[in-house]
Structure formats: C-alpha cells, structure tokens
Amino acid sequence: MFPHRIVYFGREHVFQNLSINRIIIHEVYKRNTDKTIKEPNYGQQLIQLDDDAKAALQIRVTEALGTSTHGIEMTIENSSDESLWHLASQIVETTGDDAAFINLSQLVTAELAKSQKSRGIPGGILVVIEGTCGHPARKLMCVIKAEPHAGFIKRQEQGQLFLEYLKDLILTPQSKLYKIGAFIQADLAAVATPEQPSAQWKGYLFDDLATKGNREGAAQYFYETFLGLGFPTNSASLTKEFHKLTKDFIKGANIDEEKRSDLLNALTTYLKVDTNTTVQVGAFSDSFISDDNLKDAYKEYMVQNEFTLNAVHKDLTEVASELKQRKIVFGHNIKLIAPPKEFADYVSMTVIDGTPTETNPATKWTQIIIRDRIMDQE
C-alpha cells in the first residue's frame, strides 16, 4: 500500500515562478455595422507596473492557467509563419529591443481584430506579456483579452469614506470577463522540424466557457482562430488514464475501507455526474480528499506517473463502460454490484471485528446495510 504520509517532491508546476518582464496594452473593438474591422487603438509604449500591481497580475495569470479547472493545456494547431505561435516565438527573442516587442505586440492585436468576425463579439483590452515561468525558467508569451466592466472603488478623504464609480474596470477577479492564451518554450531538447516547427512549445488556454460544454461556442474565435490552438485529440485516453491512476492510488492508499469506498464513489461521481467538462488532479483532491497528507501523496503519485497537473478536457468514450457499475469483491467469491449513484445513495459498509474460525480466519468482517428491501432472488 502507499504510505499515508508522503512528502511531495514532484516537478514544479509549469506556471510557478511566473515573472513578467515587459507588458503593453492595446484596445480592440467590435466590428463596424457593415462588419468591417474597426482599427484597434494600438499602445505605443510599455506599461510600467509597481511591484504590488505586477505581483497581483502574476498571481492572476498563475492561478488562471496553472491551478484553475478552466486552464487547459492545448495543442498548437497553427504553426505557420502567419500564426500567433510564430509571433510569440519572435516576441520572446526581443530582449533588449523594446521597439521590436511593441511592433510585434501590435501585430498580435491586429490578429485578434481579424479573428473577431462577428459583431456579437465585444471589444476589450488586449494585454501582451513577455516573461518567463517554471523552474528552470522558460520563455513565455501571454495574451489576455479583458472586457471592461463597471464597478466601485473605495476612497477616503478627510476621514470620510466614499464610493467612486468606475465604468472601465479590467482584470478584476470576474473570470468571465477575460480570456488568456499562453505559449511557453517548454522543451528545449525537442528538435523543431519543417513539419513541426513548434516542437519545443506548449500552448495553454484559460476561458470560463471551456468548462461549460460550450467549447465550440463564443470562445472558438479566441482559442482557434486567434491563438491557433485546439483541444487535445487524446482527451479520451487522458481521461481514461486519470481514472485508472486515481483508482489505483485509492485502492493502494493506507486508509480504512470505508474511506476507500467513499473515494471510489467520489471518483465515479466526479467523472460521470460533475458538470465540468475537464478533469484535474487538484480539482479532484480539493473536492474529495480532506486529509492534507493524502492530498500530497495523491499529487506525488500522479506526477510520478507523468500525469499532467493541468486540466484535461473530459472525454468518457474510453472509460464509460467502467463507470456503469461499482463492484465490491469479498472473500469466498461474494460480490456486491450496483450502479454508482445507487451504490452511493443506498449502500453503507462498515468494517467490524469478527470472530475467526477454522474455515474463516478473518478477524475483520464487513457489515453492509442496503436501505431497501429484497426485490428478487435466484
């Protein structure tokens, strides 16, 4: 069995230690009434953030892309010379040349304006960031489309508190009002080829819509047309691997049988009943594992088995048959089988002390309560 307490020494999350080197903002607008592009308002100089503001923005991006169930590792589908990935790969090489960074960021903004083909897509502020993340540090280019909204700020004058109304707040914690795309030069050992020029790179998306079964909806212009990203085609196999690894961990963990049964029920619920369209190690552990040591053990186990800590698009195609029934096997070929929801709702199991005999040396027995009457016998 896995020990109950394991100190976690797994690889650091890809978005930890995120550091912003340069930042610039531009403004894009929704299309004109004749559906032609309205020229963006291009920023002409870098934005200088104080330490508190930079730290807050770094945390916002890290939490969105790194720990949120809405942050998803994507595949880079468009790696042509006209792609956003190509612009990103140029931006990260402009260290010491702010003019080149500004010019390339304006080209990025023009690409967003072209991608917003419908008048139903609102305008907003486009934040372009160049920096590093991870350990060791890897080059990063990140874009944030933030939609302005109204709100209040508190201010104090002469000992009196006032509320000030602002119409153009951006990058508040209202996640529905911004989308993030990021490109990271993650694997320097990979060899770029003419067929796969982006081999060293990974792409990431944060979009609140990505977990509401609407991946082909309003966000498509952002992740597909603008970023050139796609949802991984191996989502089904990754979902199956998540199920298998998590199930194996629970079955091998040093916990009592009642807790084991609860966690196995929770795993089925998380995959089959939960409305989110992603699965994520952190989301499952935060929702269903209350013991911090067991959480650490679970995270280490998944990392050691090379399963990503990022959210993965949920596809139950390859695991659906395994989620149809919960099966408990006892000694002497005794089995208890039921649909997962009914098992969780109507079956209780408790380990009790037993009296061993010559034919049954077990000192621990299982007491089962089924909250219903017998319907049939064979």
Descriptive report:
With 378 residues, the protein is an alpha+beta fold. The chain folds into two domains: 19-230, no CATH class; 255-378, no CATH class. It is built from nine helices and 15 strands. The strands form five sheets. It has a seven-stranded antiparallel β-sheet with strand order 1-3-4-7-8-2-9. The chain has a two-stranded antiparallel sheet with strand order 5-6. A hairpin with a 5-residue loop joins β12 and β13. Mean pLDDT is 85; it is low at 1-12 and 211-218. One of its GO terms (cellular component) is nucleoid. InterPro entries: Nucleoid_associated_NdpA. Pfam families: NA37 (PF04245). This is Nucleoid-associated protein.
What's this entry about, in short?
By secondary structure, the protein is an alpha+beta fold. It is 30% helix and 25% strand.
Describe the protein's topology:
Layout: E1 19-28, H1 51-67, E2 71-76, H2 84-91, H3 98-115, E3 124-133, E4 138-146, E5 149-157, E6 160-169, E7 178-185, E8 201-206, H4 220-226, E9 229-230, H5 235-252, H6 257-272, E10 278-279, H7 281-288, H8 292-304, E11 312-313, E12 326-329, E13 335-338, H9 340-346, E14 347-353, E15 364-370
Antiparallel strand pairs: 1-3, 2-8, 2-9, 3-4, 4-7, 5-6, 7-8, 10-11, 12-13, 14-15
Helix pairs in contact: 2-3, 3-4, 5-6, 6-9, 7-8
